[in-house]
Specification:
It contains 1 helix and 3 strands, in the order βββα. The termini are close together. It has one domain. The chain has a 3-stranded antiparallel β-sheet, with helices on one face. Helices cover 16% and strands 43% of the residues. It is globular, with a radius of gyration of 12 Å.
């Protein structure tokens, strides 16, 4: 999982990437807060995240 700065139409935000061997999920948000990762993985996620 990773996030990087993202600018669209003059508005700053972040592009998040969550990936496995078979899936890549991209999400653009105005925040790089913890809630974004939790909403992607689920609040009860108990695995390992590599960043």
């Amino acid at each position: 999982m990773d996030e990087t700065g993202w600018r669209q139409d003059g508005v700053s935000g972040y592009c998040w990437l969550a990936r496995t061997d078979t899936l890549s999920l991209y999400r653009v948000e105005l925040s790089r807060g913890r809630w974004v990762a939790e909403s992607i993985l689920g609040a009860q996620f108990a695995g390992t995240v590599v960043v």
